[in-house]
């Protein structure tokens, strides 16, 4: 029987270089299973162990996502110094074109998060490198049609009703982002490969250093070399490639990955179709979530005299987007925790991790909502000096507060889905709740009942709430012992393909 002090020493505190020597720690499962210890003591010990595992994952992940957003923000800020037209073009290229590729690639990359996390938990270390390479191949191929879309972005933007002059300038900005597509294709599998092994701090350091370099390079390109708008977007692409190369070199050179990265493997070419299907389900799941609130903005633009509504909702969406990075960090953390524990055959630990992460994220989201309501009269002044906009933002803050609370739960439940491999199920749930219920309900309330942006947002909140309740119901009804068996079968299936390829 371990002492209380030993129980409070999580495996992440190990400084041994070969972190792959053990995929996950069994102490949490042992604590939860030991009925000889009083329940309150077991709960306290288990919570302490889980928190010590959780925050070293969630904290750096949150920082990485914030830094990624800041790089795009810096690029648009420098574009703004070229002129108002260039700023509008950069914003249009970012929100209209770049986010499509980002959401698609990140979504497809979450497939490797499921497989790598479960394989690492099951001590199938050599498969992590194979899964990562398979993901890179699939994402690079996916980048080809995206490249075509980037090339023909001007007619696409014109078809969407954008002004010809703006679409023409936005085209220049988007052309410079074409190399970024393939940086995404390599980066996200590498990122998930690292996260599956609870190695997240190095990515934070690399991203932070690259952000500083990106600011310097953007200044040189825009002010010194005077390359203009395409120079600013090419600089963003270059910065993403710097992150990719630095992370890959870290994997190749660090001794801790000697079991999970064994070099390029021909096995990466096997089982690609099965990987494509899992990746497609992951992409649909994430993209439907990413686009949902973009649809809110687009519908708001159809209101009579939409300028004030768009200004106020832009402020609220900026705040929601900033806060969402916290939930996305917990999304990544719970995905790693659940997949690792399932792969290791620890059903109680997986279930307990889901409970703890949801509670922590929910508490943080409630604090965010309270702050938003307390500061509702002054929030908009961080973005604009207009009193009219400030009053409109104040009216929308209750809707923003509810959205923040839902965003504290829903992304975590989506992370559980990724950890378990439920992406296809969640994709169907998202289609029904978001686009068959949320969007139509918002349009009815906003236009038919004359409630404007409040009605549109209310409908969208209804869709999100229904989706959250369904995911919560699915999670609460989960048989975690069965999930362990399913994970074992999935890993044996993929390993079987690997062995069959070797034998042939």
Q: Tell the overall outline.
A: globular
The overall average pLDDT, rounded, is: 83
Uncertain parts: 1-23, 496-504
Strand content: under 5%
N-to-C order of helices and strands: HHHHHHHHHHHHHHHHH
Distance between the termini: 48 Å
**Class per helix and strand makeup:** mainly alpha
Roughly how many Å is the radius of gyration? Answer: 23 Å
Organism: Vigna radiata var. radiata
Subcellular location: Membrane
Membrane topology: Multi-pass membrane protein
Family: Belongs to the multi antimicrobial extrusion (MATE) (TC 2.A.66.1) family.
Describe this structure in words.
The chain has helices spanning 4-7, 27-33, 39-80, 84-121, 126-151, 153-159, 164-175, 178-196, 201-224, 229-253, 272-300, 307-343, 347-374, 387-420, 423-448, 452-476, 480-503. The longest helix has 42 residues, at 39-80. The N and C termini lie far apart (48 Å). It is 81% helix and 0% strand. By secondary structure, it is mainly alpha-helical. Helix 11 (272-300) runs parallel beside helix 15 (423-448) and helix 12 runs parallel beside helix 14 (387-420). It folds into two domains: 60-269, Tetracycline Repressor, domain 2 (Orthogonal Bundle), CATH 1.10.357; 283-499, no CATH class. Belongs to the multi antimicrobial extrusion (MATE) (TC 2.A.66.1) family.
């Amino acid at each position: 029987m371990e002492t209380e002090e030993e129980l409070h020493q999580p495996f992440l505190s190990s400084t041994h270089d070969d972190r792959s020597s053990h995929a996950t720690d069994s102490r949490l499962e042992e604590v939860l299973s030991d009925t000889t210890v009083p329940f309150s003591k077991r709960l306290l010990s288990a919570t302490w162990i889980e928190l010590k595992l959780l925050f070293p994952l969630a904290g750096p992940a949150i920082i990485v996502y914030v830094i990624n957003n800041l790089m795009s923000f810096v690029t648009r800020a420098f574009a703004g110094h070229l002129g108002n037209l260039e700023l509008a073009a950069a914003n249009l290229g970012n929100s209209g074109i770049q986010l499509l590729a980002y959401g698609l690639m990140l979504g497809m990359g979450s497939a490797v998060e499921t497989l790598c996390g479960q394989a690492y938990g099951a001590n199938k270390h050599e498969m992590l490198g194979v899964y990562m390479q398979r993901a890179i191949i699939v994402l690079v191929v996916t980048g080809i049609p995206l490249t075509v879309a980037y090339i023909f972005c001007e007619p696409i933007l014109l078809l969407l009703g954008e002004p010809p002059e703006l679409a023409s300038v936005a085209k220049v900005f988007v052309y410079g982002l074409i190399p970024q597509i393939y940086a995404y294709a390599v980066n996200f599998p590498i990122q998930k490969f690292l996260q599956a092994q609870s190695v997240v701090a190095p990515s934070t350091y690399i991203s932070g250093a690259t952000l500083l370099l990106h600011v310097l390079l953007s200044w040189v390109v825009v002010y010194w070399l005077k390359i203009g708008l395409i120079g600013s977007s090419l600089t963003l692409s270059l910065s993403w490639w710097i992150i990719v190369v630095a992370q890959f070199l870290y994997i190749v050179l660090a001794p801790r990955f000697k079991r999970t990265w064994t070099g390029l493997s021909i096995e990466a070419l096997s089982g690609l179709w099965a990987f494509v299907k899992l990746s497609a389900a992951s992409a649909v799941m994430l993209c439907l979530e990413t686009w949902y609130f973009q649809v809110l903005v687009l519908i708001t633009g159809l209101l009579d005299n939409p300028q004030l509504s768009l200004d106020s909702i832009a402020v609220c969406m900026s705040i929601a987007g900033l806060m969402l990075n916290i939930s996305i960090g917990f999304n990544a953390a719970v995905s790693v925790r659940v997949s690792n524990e399932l792969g290791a055959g620890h059903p109680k630990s997986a279930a307990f991790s889901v409970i703890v992460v949801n509670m922590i994220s929910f508490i943080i989201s409630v604090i965010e909502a309270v702050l938003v309501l307390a500061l509702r009269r002054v929030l908009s002044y961080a973005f604009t000096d207009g009193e009219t906009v400030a009053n409109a933002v104040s009216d929308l803050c209750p809707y923003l507060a509810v959205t923040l609370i839902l965003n504290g739960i829903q992304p975590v439940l989506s992370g559980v889905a990724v950890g378990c491999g439920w992406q296809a199920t969640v994709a169907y749930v998202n289609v029904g709740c978001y686009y068959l219920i949320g969007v139509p309900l918002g349009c009815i309330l906003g236009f038919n009942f004359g409630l404007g942006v409040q009605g549109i947002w209310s409908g969208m909140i209804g869709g999100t709430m229904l989706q959250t309740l369904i995911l919560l119901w699915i999670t609460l009804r989960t048989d975690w012992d069965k999930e362990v068996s399913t994970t074992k079968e999935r890993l044996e299936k993929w390993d079987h393909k690997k062995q069959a390829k070797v034998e042939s």
